[in-house]
Amino acid sequence: MARFLQSVTEYLEYSNGLDMLEGFTPTVFEGPSFDGATTAVLRTHFRKWATTAPLQEQAVDTFGNSGRYRFFVMVDQEALESVLNSDPDAMTKTGFVRLVYGEWEPEVNEDGNESVDPDEELEPLEGCTLEDVGWMKVPYDEVQGIGATDMCDMHDWDTYYVRPPQMQALA
C-alpha cells in the first residue's frame, strides 16, 4: 500500500493537485472471504458497493461515472509478488496490479454462450477465452492515473485494453 500511496502522491504533485491528497481515501476490501476469489466474484462485490457508494461518500449519486465507481484494483498473489520484487526506482516497472472494469460483461451469442471467434483460440483466463476478459495488468505506479483519470467510459476501456499477460503502460 505504501508504494501505491507514493505513486499517488507523485501523480498529484506532477498534476499540481497535492491539495487533493488529504481527501484521498482508497476503499480497501480484504479478508478471508476474498482469498483466492476470482475477478468475477470480486466484480459482483464491487458492483454492489458501487451502487450505493457515491451517495454515501459524496451525498449525491452523480459521481457514478467517475473511475472510482467504474474500476477497481485487484491485488492477487501474483500481483503482490510482482510489486514486492520490483525496483521502485527502475525506469521500467515490472510490478503490476489488475485494473478491473467493474461494468464489464462478456459478449454472448443468442445461445447465451461466450461469443468466441473460432479462428482465434486464446488461452483461457479464469475460464474466459474472449479477447477482452474485463481486466488488465497495469503498472502499480500508474493505476491511479489510468483508472481514475484516463478511462471514464467503455470507449476508453476499448482504447487502452491489452489482454493479459501483456501489461498496459501509459508512461
Question: Could you name the key traits of this structure?
Answer:
33% helix, three-stranded antiparallel β-sheet
Could you explain the architecture of this structure?
By secondary structure, this protein is an alpha+beta fold. It is built from five helices and three strands, in the order H-H-E-H-E-E-H-H. The chain has helices spanning 2-14, 39-58, 77-84, 143-150, 154-160; strands at residues 71-74, 96-101, 135-139. The protein has a three-stranded antiparallel sheet, sandwiched between helices. It starts with a helix and ends in an 11-residue tail after the last helix. The mean pLDDT is 81.
List the helices and strands and how they pair.
Layout: H1 2-14, H2 39-58, E1 71-74, H3 77-84, E2 96-101, E3 135-139, H4 143-150, H5 154-160
Antiparallel strand pairs: 1-2, 2-3
Mean pLDDT: 81
Shape: globular
* Rg, Cα atoms, Å: 17 Å
Query: How many β strands by DSSP?
Result: 3
Cα distance, first to last residue?
Answer: 21 Å
How many helices?
A: 5
